[in-house]
Amino acid sequence: MRNFILCAAIMTFSMGVFSAEKPQKRWETERQEAQLEEQREQQLSFEEKARMRYQYRGILQIEEGLDDGNPDVVGSFVAEDAGGHRVYMLKIEDPSLVSKLKALDRKKVALVGKIRNSGKYILVSAVVDQSGSPIRSRRRAQGGL
User: What is the pTM of this model?
Assistant: First the structure.
């Protein structure tokens, strides 16, 4: 019985040590895959590059610690399209976008970006303002007919 408890304690400790290293390696391979996708994209024509960027509409959620604590992931995005809802981990190209995204947390937004790593991440390059113009009531001309 004592050996069983000792074995269980050793296995628990070793799983904790190895699981801490595993996400680091996975993140590194995902970064390498993204770099390969960027290199392939550099060889495309201007029109093909423009088609790669797309505007996605959906609900944004800023949350740290997603994807096993990946520092590149700033939140999640639920894209709404004709095919239903798709959930992506959210990465950003420009760190200055974080403040804009935090202001739009848990709201419907439109993001411009590209899908990376076989549909796991969306790499955001811009946020499209969805507020629109204010509603004005139509006023009649004063005086006369």
Answer: 0.65
